[in-house]
Amino acid sequence: MSPTRTRTGDAPKVSVLLPSYNEAENLESVIEELVGVLAKEQLTYEIVVVDDGSTDATQEVVAGLAPRFDHLRGIRLRRNVGKSTALAAAFTDVRGDIVVLMDADGQDDPAGIPTLLAALDGGLDLVTGRRSTRQDRPIKRITSKLYNAVTAWVSGVGGRDFNSGFKAMRRPVADSLELYGELHRYIPVLANWYGFRVGEVDVHHRPRLHGTSKFGRARYWRGFFDLLTVRFLTAYGSRPLHLFGGLGFALGLVGGAVLLWLLIEQQIEGVGIGKRPALFAGVLLVIVGMQLFSLGLLGQLLVHHSTRRDPSSWIDHRP
């Protein structure tokens, strides 16, 4: 979706992104509080409301607040495309050296922004606001702990609150991220894979101001498959033969061993093998192994001939 700019101005130091889907009743309170914190810190900033195809009065609220706050502007997507795609569109439009992500429901306390920025000054490239005491339903807190534990185990990246929407990152991190589907949940994992330094700091978490959460139960199974996607991309995205070829070789080896055992029994003991289930299992394992190995080879050829990331994007330009 192509973002539509509503305001322009000089390049700020900090760009605060507020992804919003039907959060019209919360925006005014959140923006007023946010402006107060940013002004107190004497930062040059912009606030960008990313309207992800809302069907309520979000667009009208942003238009009404813009004359009051010179540094506020909006990006409206033509339809609801999901948080990941909305953020990806906004990343191409922001102008700050530092990008802060904050949900528009009022649960993220803007007073935590100085803490996030201090963590960046301390050497991190991306910092997540870890919700030390979550103000959510017990079932949501329990499933979130399980999700974070599994994510840390599968990805190998340390963290206790990957899914927190309260984050701050340097501009090169935002420029490197390729978000789609539900990959916004794994921004720290992707940033770590790109070689950036990531971490967490404790922040204050509050109850939602108005309305209800826009994420349903489907986020659990979608999140699981996206975790597998991230694991594959970070571990085998540039070397699919290592995964599929390894699996294919292992299955082929087992199948070959079964067929060799059957051949020995037939030749030495004269046992008939034509109708034995082991024969069909051995042949199937060999065939599937060959197919997986071939799939790995094809994947490796696609990676080799596809357009790859500019190697200069890996260079750390900081002194």
Throw out a few tags for this protein:
48% helix, elongated, 319 residues, single chain, alpha/beta, disordered N terminus, 10 helices, 7-stranded mixed sheet, Spore Coat Polysaccharide Biosynthesis Protein SpsA, Chain A, 2 domains
Concise summary:
With 319 residues, the protein is of the alpha/beta class. The chain has helices at residues 24-40, 58-65, 83-91, 113-121, 138-155, 171-176, 187-193, 218-236, 240-269, 277-305; strands at residues 14-20, 45-51, 72-76, 98-101, 126-131, 167-170, 198-203. The two termini are 37 Å apart.
If you had to describe this structure to a student in words, what would you say it looks like?
By secondary structure, the protein is an alpha/beta fold. It has two domains: 14-236, Spore Coat Polysaccharide Biosynthesis Protein SpsA, Chain A; 240-306. It has helices at residues 24-40, 58-65, 83-91, 113-121, 138-155, 171-176, 187-193, 218-236, 240-269, 277-305, and strands spanning 14-20, 45-51, 72-76, 98-101, 126-131, 167-170, 198-203. Strands 3-2-1-4-6-5-7 form a seven-stranded mixed β-sheet, sandwiched between helices.
